[in-house]
């Protein structure tokens, strides 16, 4: 079967992304920048999952940071308090996060719109309070330390460079999976639910099932990211699932472009790197994020991806306009354009 133009375009972009991931450390060999790119990769996983849930299924979540914290703390507690092998605790963290999401999905996804957002925010606050109050298990406000590094078949990811490639390999695999997921029948069903749940149900789409599926999948992405973060920094505190982190990841989705998984990556890169150069505004961080979200919603509702698409369309149109001058026939007479104009303008 012949590949469509969109599939070819995605294949080209995917290849360029893989090449960029591979070569980026060669241009930024400073350990600080490598560690920053590791954090970008981890955050990108959370935002990718949230984009599937919010941008494509059209649901509202203000609490996905809770799943990030759950994944981090499950692997951290199991590997430090109970002596589980690192990979076992890592995989249990991913599975455990998905299971918790499945358990809460049934009651919470019956709510719609703004109320769903409030319910997910309430869940995040419950998780945050639990992590603070269970000092004997999670370390409470003082935190949980000495979390071991990940090792696979004797290879220990004990350097920033190794962890960089490990994180971005996982991201790339899930990014490609997400692209295929969205182009499948399930992805089309999610778009239909986004447009109109009642109409989608009338067409025979099992709305509850698909909403649960994408909710659990997005939670698994967040749990994976949290587990990666735990084994990278080797220390956890309840702040990783605070209200502020919820605001940050939502800002990443909205600013990048909630209707595009490329937007998820773009928004994450921007909002992870930019604050590093705005240290003087650290006390006003929520205000800065709020103003950025308002600006994007007002002037480019499709996010940075929509802005870049419009820019590319304008540039392409300008070049096409310049290139449509009239050629002459062999007899020397001018050929008219399709509108009957001599100069092609």
Describe the structure.
The protein has helices at 5-27, 31-56, 64-80, 86-108, 113-133, 135-138, 160-183, 185-195, 197-202, 207-233, 243-256, 261-273, 285-299, 303-323, and strands at residues 144-145, 151-152, 155-156, 235-236. The longest helix has 27 residues, at 207-233. The protein has a single domain (5-280), classed as ABC transporter involved in vitamin B12 uptake, BtuC (Orthogonal Bundle), CATH 1.10.3470. The protein is built from 14 helices and four strands. The protein is an all-alpha fold and 345 residues long. A hairpin with a 2-residue loop joins β2 and β3 (155-156). Strands 1-4 form a two-stranded antiparallel sheet. A two-stranded antiparallel sheet has the order 2-3.
Characteristic terms for this protein:
two-stranded antiparallel ribbon; ABC transporter involved in vitamin B12 uptake, BtuC; mainly alpha; about 350 residues
């Amino acid at each position: 079967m012949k590949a469509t133009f969109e599939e070819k375009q995605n294949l080209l972009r995917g290849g360029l992304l893989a090449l960029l991931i591979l070569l980026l450390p060669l241009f930024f060999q400073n350990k600080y920048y490598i560690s920053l790119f590791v954090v970008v990769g981890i955050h990108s996983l959370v935002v990718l999952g949230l984009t599937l849930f919010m941008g494509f299924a059209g649901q509202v979540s203000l609490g996905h940071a809770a799943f990030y914290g759950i994944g981090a703390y499950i692997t951290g507690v199991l590997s430090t308090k109970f002596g589980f092998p690192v990979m076992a605790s890592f995989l249990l963290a991913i599975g455990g996060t998905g299971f918790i999401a499945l358990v809460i999905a049934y009651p919470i996804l019956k709510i719609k719109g703004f109320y769903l957002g409030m319910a997910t925010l309430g869940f995040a606050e419950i998780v945050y309070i639990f992590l603070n109050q269970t000092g004997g298990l999670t370390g409470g406000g003082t935190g949980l330390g000495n979390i071991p590094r990940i090792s696979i078949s004797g290879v220990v990811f004990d350097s920033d460079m190794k962890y960089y490639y490990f994180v971005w390999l996982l991201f790339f695999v899930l990014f490609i999976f997400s692209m295929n997921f969205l182009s499948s029948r399930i992805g089309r069903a999610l778009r239909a639910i986004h447009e109109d749940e009642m109409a989608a149900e009338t067409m025979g789409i099992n709305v509850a099932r698909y909403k649960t599926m994408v909710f659990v999948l997005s939670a698994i992405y967040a749990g994976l990211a949290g587990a990666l973060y735990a084994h990278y920094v080797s220390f956890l505190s309840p702040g990783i699932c605070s209200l502020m982190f919820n605001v940050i990841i939502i800002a990443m989705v909205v600013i990048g472009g909630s209707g595009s998984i490329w937007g998820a990556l773009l928004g994450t890169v921007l909002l992870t790197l930019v604050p590093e150069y705005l240290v003087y505004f650290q006390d006003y961080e929520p205000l800065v994020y709020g103003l950025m979200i308002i600006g994007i919603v007002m002037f480019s509702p499709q996010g940075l991806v929509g802005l870049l698409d419009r820019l590319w369309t304008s540039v392409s149109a300008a070049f096409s306009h310049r290139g449509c001058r009239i050629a002459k026939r062999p007899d020397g007479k001018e050929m008219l354009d399709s509108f009957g104009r001599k100069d092609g303008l």
